[in-house]
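TA notes, week 10

Several of you asked for a full example with nothing omitted. So below is the full record: structure tokens for the whole chain, then the designed sequence directly under it. When grading your own attempts, check the secondary structure regions first.
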């Protein structure tokens, strides 16, 4: 059997980080080598890791990325809410190390984006609207997934955000025309769908060449077998 990948998780005490650590412990492809929280960030064993999964904040994500570039380790970034200048820093780092970036690691959202693109193209005269609902503690609005969904539609679309209760994540695209509406909805029942997806991304990206990768790369690779 191949050696388990030494995995570091940034934001390990957060809602997502906790689930990534829990699933990594049950996954023989990984050895959970570093659980990186705010108070042990400075003494994390960066150079001892093969791959990093980051579910922290945009600011700490960029600090962790600089450590990863120095230590030449692959990074999976699940954080959302990056500014344009922060995105430029991620792109620059991807010239040196492999980076897998996705605002949503769920297979369902990947396919929702494909269906949404097809539907928007097929119904060019219909009005479009995206509704997204998340828990009250979510920091960014609109959600990264809502923005990613909007970006594939090829025309302007409003995104309506609501932050209520403990909703894990709900996204609906509405296409409204004369006499009818089409709704495409995705409901995340558990954060484990994102945590599992991030682990798949880590297993996939750790041995790639430097570059910026996403769910399209993971799914097209899997489709080829
Ligand atoms: N890509 C996806 O599929 C997906 C799915 C769900 C969520 N997300 C995104 O993932 C991010 C995290 O979400 P969440 O719900 O897990 O948030 P969360 O519960 O607030 O977790 C974030 C964690 O990062 C920690 N942190 C902050 N600064 C740090 C630092 N310098 N070093 C280490 N840890 C640090 C926080 O610690 P403190 O509490 O001490 O600040 C907290 O434990 C958000 O951007 C969210 O939008 C993405």
């Amino acid at each position: 059997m191949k050696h388990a990948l030494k995995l570091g998780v940034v934001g390990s005490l957060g809602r997502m980080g906790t689930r990534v650590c829990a699933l990594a412990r049950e996954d023989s492809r990984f050895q959970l080598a570093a659980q990186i929280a705010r108070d042990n960030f400075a003494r994390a064993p960066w150079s001892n890791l093969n791959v990093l999964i980051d579910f922290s904040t945009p600011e700490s994500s960029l600090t962790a990325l600089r450590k990863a570039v120095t230590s030449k380790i692959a990074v999976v970034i699940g954080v959302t809410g990056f500014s344009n200048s922060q995105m430029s820093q991620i792109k620059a780092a991807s010239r040196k190390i492999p980076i897998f970036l996705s605002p949503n690691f769920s297979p369902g959202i990947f396919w929702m984006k494909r269906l949404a693109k097809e539907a928007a193209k097929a119904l060019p005269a219909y009005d479009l609207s995206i509704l997204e609902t998340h828990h009250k503690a979510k920091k960014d609005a609109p959600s990264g997934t809502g923005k990613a969904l909007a970006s594939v539609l090829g025309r302007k679309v409003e995104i309506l955000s609501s932050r209520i209760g403990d909703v894990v994540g709900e996204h609906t695209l509405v296409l409204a025309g004369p006499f009818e509406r089409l709704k495409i909805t995705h409901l995340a029942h558990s954060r484990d769908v994102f945590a599992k997806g991030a682990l798949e991304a880590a297993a996939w990206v750790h041995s790639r060449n430097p570059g910026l990768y996403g769910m399209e790369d993971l799914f097209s690779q899997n489709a080829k077998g």
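The mean pLDDT is 96. Use that as a sanity check on your answer.
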